[in-house]
Amino acid sequence: MSGFSSNDPNTLRVLVVGESKVGKTLFIRRLCYDVFASAASWEGGNRFYWENAWPPTVGVAVDVLIRDAPVEDRPRPTLASSPISVDDDFDSVEVGIPTGREEVFSKEDEEIGLQVEKRSPLLAFRTQTIELYELGGVVRPGAGAMLPLQRLHLDGVVFVYDRADVRSSARLRGWFALVRKFLFSEGGKGPHLMLLGALRKPVRAYLPSLSGGREPLPSLPDELLLDPAFRVRVWQGMEKARDASPRGEGGWIRPLNYLIAFMRAVGWVMWMLMSPSLVLSEMFQEERGDVYFRAWVGKIEWCARWMMWIDHWMTVALTVLLFGAPESSFQEPCHSSRSVLNRIHEDPHCIVHVHACHLYDRIAFESTIDEITSFFDTLHRYKIARYYKQH
């Protein structure tokens, strides 16, 4: 089955990578069980997939998307047709085969003097199978986890990042280096790439809620609110406006809470100073008990602490050996998220960049479905061209 899937021109293999909790699983399930699903399966998937919380993906999860993809109905190239040329720099394929009926019969029409009506290329629908391999972002994979993926002959890689979180896009630098190391050949050839900026909730929901909860949100475009630094400034301005308002909710409750907290702190200090253990120090010393017993208790506690410390670090070492180093141990350099995204976007293999993919709602998600399917269609055309070249 694996050999047939890798050689079948209508089967694509796409790897989905990114940090944990950026929306990789939600993106795949929107595609497989929501948009490209029948009405009956969508109702069942709606109850099962959207009303339950999903645990983070550990390892590799595989989902299959089956859809009808439009392709040009081109005949198989023969000796009379021009050969297929491959651009080594950009790994692009140019198919020099007839694109329509007017090109096929052009010589015959010239001989008999007939005029042929110009027509667009014929389109046909083929059943396309897309295997989506989701790589968990909880633990950064090592060479052992990437070796099976390297042998799958992947057609594309999707880098998913949280559009409203700068850290998720900045950490794509490590994922991009991992993909370039294991999935690209020494000559620079490898799968095509796509950047996907995911939004798991509406843009205005990313604003921190004030304690009052009734302040109107400012009328600002979504592109500005997607900037985390700008969101912080907006929230600070809303908080200052709320505090400056004489009728603002919590205007007199907050100073009262500060006063109560101060009185509690003063009372706690006074209770410590007036404690019998400090006033009656001699009596307190007599009630301590045997000194040797306290020494043995201290030794047992010291041994228990060392055993817990050794057990913790042995667990960490085994986890690193089995699953690779966790993401917390990676010291990410101070790279801006914009420079990382520009570096991936400017790569010759990156062909699509979806800036804002709304995953929280089906209708909002369908607004970006054309860009996503165009990525799959491009991969399909490249694979069909390579298939014709080999056969």
Question: What does this 3D model show about the protein?
Answer:
This protein is α/β, with parallel strands linked by helices and about 400 residues long. It has a domain at about 1-205 and about 335-390: P-loop containing nucleotide triphosphate hydrolases (Rossmann fold, 3-Layer(aba) Sandwich). Helix content is about 50%, strand content about 15%. The chain is built from 17 helices and 8 strands. The chain has helices spanning about 1-5, 25-35, 40-50, 100-105, 105-110, 145-150, 165-170, 170-185, 220-225, 230-245, 255-275, 275-280, 280-285, 290-325, 335-345, 360-365, 370-390; strands spanning about 10-15, 60-70, 85, 90-95, 125-135, 155-160, 190-200, 350-360. It has a 6-stranded mixed β-sheet, with helices on both faces. A hairpin with a 4-residue loop joins β3 and β4 (about 90-95). α2 (about 25-35) packs antiparallel against α3 (about 40-50). The longest helix is centred in the last third of the chain and has 33 residues, at about 290-325. The protein is extended and about 90 Å long. The two termini are about 20 Å apart. The relative contact order is 0.16. The model is unreliable at about 1-5, about 40-45, about 75-120, about 210-215 and about 325-335 (pLDDT under 50).
